[in-house]
Amino acid sequence: MKEYRIKICGLTSMDNLKSVLDCGVNAIGVISCSTSPRHLSLPEVKSMLKAARKWAPDVERHWVVRGVESHVLESTLSAGLACTHVQLHGDYAAEHARIVKRQGKKVVQVHPVKDSDHPTIWLETDRLLLDTPGPSGGGTGRAFDRKLLISWSPPRVQVALAGGLGRTEESQELRNLPPWVDWLDLNSGVESSPGIKNPSQIIEFTQQLAN
Q: DSSP for 96-152?
């Protein structure tokens, strides 16, 4: 089976972060979204990303934002936030992606998949994240209809898939994904409780993918 790169998103605990990094994942994410049960304050975000950089410097570190205003986005990044990527959920546009790029970070553009229409990808986008539509802009824990992707032409950027991932029995279903999907973004599907990930479940899922 194709070797996917794995991101674990929505981390909230420093101890749990270390355990997740020990699983050999390719990326982690911390969330700034006041309506999310996995929301962290800016000081907590800074601490978590700094620790991740220290413990696993080669692992991508994503700051996942929704509802963070432009001036806060820019000031936080310009102060030296230890992220590698900024994942833009909700009512963001190309102008916000430009803010991220000016600060030397990579842009993850989020596209809620509602139909088979191909999204407009911003010039500044480095990766496209396909997620399930929801009132909070993601984090539904449900998969969208992946058959909608069949008619797509390959996007010009890397593509990550989110939404309802983490079941070990799902590995067979993932064999039918388009070959241009590179990343799997896991969150609630590998949790013991909101924001606390289950390392054993992460390892079991990745082992099933490898078989």
A: HHHHHHHTT-EEEEEEE--SSPPPPPPTT-SEEEEE---TTSS--S----GGGGTTP
Is the Cβ–Cβ distance between 110 and 126 less than 8 Å? Answer: no
pTM above 0.85, yes or no: yes
- Asked whether the beta carbons of 156 and 182 are under 8 A apart, the reply is no
Amino acid at 206: T
Map out the domains of the chain with their CATH numbers. 5-210 (3.20.20.70)
Amino acid at 58: D
Report whether 105 contacts 96 (CB < 8 A).
no
CB atoms within 10 A of CB 119: 15
pLDDT at 211 over 70: yes
The pLDDT value recorded for residue 79 is 97
Q: Which residues, other chains included, contact 195 with Cβ-Cβ below 8 Å and sequence gap of 6+?
A: 10, 11, 12, 13, 16, 37, 38
The pair of three-digit structure tokens given for residue 51, joined into one six-digit string:
């620790």
Lookup: tokens for 94: 């190309």
The pLDDT of residue 173: 77
In sequence order, the 6+-apart residues with CB closer than 8 A to the CB of 191 are 10, 197, 198
Q: Is the pLDDT of residue 207 over 80?
A: yes
Six-digit token pair at 18? 């270390």
